[in-house]
Amino acid sequence: MIRGKTLLGFDFDLTLVEQDSDHRILALVPETHQKFQSLYDAGMQFTDSVATSLLDLHARGIGPSQILEALKTIPFDDAVRQMFEFAKSNNADIVILSDANTFYIDEVLKAKGLRDYVSEIITNPASWGEQGQLIVKRHTTEPPHGCSRCSPNLCKGKEFLGFIQRCGVQYDRLVFTGDGRNDFCPMTKLGPRDVALARTGRTLAKCLENEQNRAQISAELRWWTEPSEMFQIIQEILNTDAN
């Protein structure tokens, strides 16, 4: 078993990129984006709402090339590139856990030249149908993951631990970085030596205003607002681990 490494776990939307990728694509047609919002507001699960709306997007004439071009221009801070390069040079592993989908994340990372820096992407599977429609399904269907903290499509905490168990590495330190309410669960899986990085002004920050929620995180909790601050904290952690 490999020892002496740090594992960096990241959310994707509004953590590694500066916009929600689902909203970015669905907003290519305002009527489709409005339909998505109506479905979600009416109680349809988020991933299912996206999947249904992507079919509507296709029916309105949006194909693979337009989706790909939109992904290539999603707001991206160069501090993230620097952070990945620094992590690689310091022998840290990177795993992404997201409620987006495989196509979005793969294509954004490839466009930025960063796909090879990531050990694994854990998210909802996406594929192209015969008519050129993007088909997205839930990551988890049967059996249900059973976590009350997470959306039915994906328990990030369970999947984060599952990655660690199957990768054959005994990590010295775990770090998880995110912005959303669904990033709370993996942070509760961290130990006292580990670090949770929460973005200010987002739904995770709101969740952590609750003292009972905050008490469920035994890791060191640190805050960031801009990607440059996230990178700076990751640098500090990896430099400390190297000494």
Overview of this protein structure:
This protein has 243 residues and is of the alpha/beta class. It folds into two domains: 2-17 and 76-124 and 138-242, Rossmann fold (3-Layer(aba) Sandwich); 22-72, no CATH class. The protein has eleven helices and eight strands. Helix 2 (30-41) packs antiparallel against helix 3 and helix 5 (78-89) runs parallel beside helix 11 (227-242). The longest helix is centred in the C-terminal third of the chain and has 16 residues, at 227-242. It is globular, with a radius of gyration of 18 Å. The two termini are 22 Å apart.
Task: Tell me the layout of helices and strands.
Layout: E1 2-10, H1 21-26, H2 30-41, H3 46-59, H4 64-72, H5 78-89, E2 93-101, H6 102-111, E3 120-124, E4 126-128, E5 134-136, H7 156-167, E6 169-178, H8 184-188, E7 195-199, H9 203-207, H10 211-214, E8 220-224, H11 227-242
Parallel strand pairs: 1-2, 1-6, 2-3, 6-7, 7-8
Antiparallel strand pairs: 4-5
